[in-house]
């Protein structure tokens, strides 16, 4: 194996619930009506995709660009108050980086990935947002782009993921996938049968052997 590529939300930051709360509040404030499937539908979407979803499916009375910009601004405020780094995540990334090139391949916007890296000071030379890609997860695009920027074959990469769409994206990229299931939004059972499941991110260094 030549590299380790990490998802961000739900793997390194306990942020899935923060995203959900911010989007629901923002939608309610702008004429939207949350649906039973909205949370899972948007997991893994790129910024343009979920901005459009808030307008078309949730009914937010703004343009997609206005909706996404408003939500991201609220997320920046939330992170400024408290960045919910998952216990063991920083040590796990440092341990991986001591042995492999590492990257982040995330559906989060670049500005929020930068906040995480600035706060933690982690040695991550490549950080890719699906904003840069044609499609978000479960498309493999963001993982393929991260591997390309590391200069390695996708087949020689570990991918560390937590959600159904993220796991599907990493599998579609042809990577060896390690799952740290999100306790708030557990991934689909059929996807978990295709990956190695870890009980926590703290178990990652041992799994890389």
From TrEMBL:
The record's InterPro entries line, in alphabetical order, gives: HAD-like_sf (IPR036412), HAD-SF_hydro_IA (IPR006439), HAD_sf (IPR023214), PGP-like_dom2 (IPR023198)
Xref: SUPFAM superfamilies: HAD-like
Task: Fetch the Pfam families from UniProt.
Answer: Hydrolase
Provide the transmembrane region boundaries. Answer: none
Protein name, UniProt field: HAD family phosphatase
- Annotated organism of origin: Lentzea alba
């Amino acid at each position: 194996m030549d590299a380790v590529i990490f998802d961000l939300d739900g793997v390194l930051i306990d942020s899935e619930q923060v995203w959900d709360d911010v989007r629901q509040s923002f939608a309610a404030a702008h004429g939207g009506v949350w649906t039973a499937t909205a949370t899972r539908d948007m997991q893994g979407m790129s910024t343009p995709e979920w901005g459009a979803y808030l307008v078309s499916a949730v009914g937010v009375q703004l343009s997609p660009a206005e909706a996404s910009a408003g939500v991201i601004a609220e997320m920046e405020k939330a992170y400024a108050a408290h960045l919910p780094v998952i216990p063991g995540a920083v040590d796990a990334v440092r341990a991986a980086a001591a042995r492999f090139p590492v990257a982040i391949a995330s559906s989060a916007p670049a500005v929020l990935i930068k906040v995480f890296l600035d706060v933690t000071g982690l040695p991550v030379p490549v950080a890719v947002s699906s904003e840069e890609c044609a499609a978000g997860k479960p498309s493999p695009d963001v993982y393929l782009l991260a591997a390309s920027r590391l200069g390695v074959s996708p087949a020689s990469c570990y991918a560390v993921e937590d959600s159904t769409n993220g796991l599907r994206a990493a599998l579609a990229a042809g990577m060896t996938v390690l799952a740290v299931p999100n306790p708030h939004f557990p991934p689909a059972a059929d996807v978990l049968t295709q990956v190695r499941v870890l009980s926590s991110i703290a178990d990652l260094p041992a799994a890389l052997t």
